[in-house]
Amino acid sequence: MRYGAVEGFGRWNAKERNFWRSFRSPIRRSSIDDDHGHDRTERRTIRTVQANDTLFPGARQTFRLRRDVGDLDGARTDKEIMYGITGLPADMAGPTHLNHYERAHRSVENRLHRVRNVTFQEDHSQLGTGTAPGALAGFRNLAISAMRLADRANIAHARRDLLDHDAAFAVYNI
User: Fold this and answer.
1) pLDDT tens digit sequence for 3-21
2) Strand pairing partners for 36?
3) pTM of the predicted structure, to 2 decimals
4) How far apart are CA 139 and CA 89, in angstroms?
5) For residues 136 and 156, what is the distance between their CA atoms, to the nearest angstrom?
6) What would the pLDDT profile of 72-82 be if each residue is shown by its tens digit?
7) How far apart are CA 158 and CA 170, in angstroms?
8) I need a surface site. Which of 58, 86, 118, 163 has the fewest CB within 10 A?
């Protein structure tokens, strides 16, 4: 799978974490990004090392991203550590670029998957066999995209507004 230009975002199991810890590369690079907003502070520290394709074919870099989230007073309230791999060499995607790509990937999670999970309650779906789950996910994506194309920022409000079928067709001038 590809997320922008970076592959393999997600959590690793113990075997892959040990690979990161035991990997001794002469070139280690890091980047720190601080952000303030929405009544919280966030510090993102990413460390990258060159990788060979011993464990993951095509891997050029591995990285460790640590996110520290806290209140505006500086007290840390949450810590998340994520490991990842990418097929891009260090000269094409340094730590600063990888930090940006990972943050952009999180915006996809927040923009699409969260709407599907919360507004359409996809996680509570009872469908689980055949092609029905994929087809229903496609219909949900179609509905979300249609509402966004109609300049509706809040999908939940748009869904409630369109409960009247005549109003639903009026949105598209039908």
Assistant:
1) 333 344 445 566 666 655 5
2) 41
3) 0.54
4) 38
5) 18
6) 887 888 898 98
7) 13
8) 163
